[in-house]
Amino acid sequence: MSSTETYTASSYTAKAAQAKKDVVAELVDLMKSHKVIAAVDMMNLPAAQLQSIKASIRSTVISRMAKQRLIRIAIDQAGIEGLDKLKEKLTGMPALLFTNDDPFLLYKKLSKSKTKAPMKAGQQAPEDIVVPAGPTSFTPGPMISELASVGIKTKVDGGKISVIKDTVVAKEGEVIDAKKASVLSRLDIKPMPIGLNMTAAWEGGVIYAKSILAVDEQEYLNNIKIGHLNAFALAMHVGHPAPEVVRANITKAQRISVGIALHCAIPTKDTIGILMARAVAHANAVNAHV
To answer: Measured between alpha carbons, how far is 61 from 102 in angstroms, rounded to an integer?
Structure first.
């Protein structure tokens, strides 16, 4: 090897090493200057959709792609409390998002940007894949055998192939083979979510896993309402003088006291009318038998 070739190779290596250092330095700087750091997986994300998503969040979010090894080094060098646990959430083709927004709002925004795509052979089912019962667009023929080959029972109804009952053709996590991928595609079933898959977020020393970030807002509100009703009922039952139940407890106490007064025939301003009416009714009943 000539001296020129040796110099060129060593120069390239030095530039590559410096480029990696620059990437790590930038990541460290971004980590230290933002309140929220999120890990995302870009596996199977088409370039066009990636650009669209980045454009939609650019005003409040900075995104950086890097090799997983460089991200891990940056996390170590940043020395931020609790951030090292984010390394466990780096999967697939990882990238980091930096923002000062609420991590739950960020997760919601990314989830809404997702679309559905057909399964490809070799991909894992993101959830149980169900072929629903009902008619298809296919006329009787080879398609009956294709459907049967993946466990779908059919019948001919009105000149069309119809699926007899809801059928799970793949369980969550199952690797899809070419046969199932083909059948699902022909049935126009698109179970594969395409988008930035947010695996976790760090904020204030706490790691929020995907399972926590994926809040069902309606369910959350319903749980709050149920909790309030249960708390109200408990406070009423034990007679706790909370501001929210004082009026209801007073009404309840009055109702009970009136009931006792009536039972014991104690005349009060609340019972005198009823007691008089009861006495008149008894007198009339006695008079009717005399």
So the answer is: 11
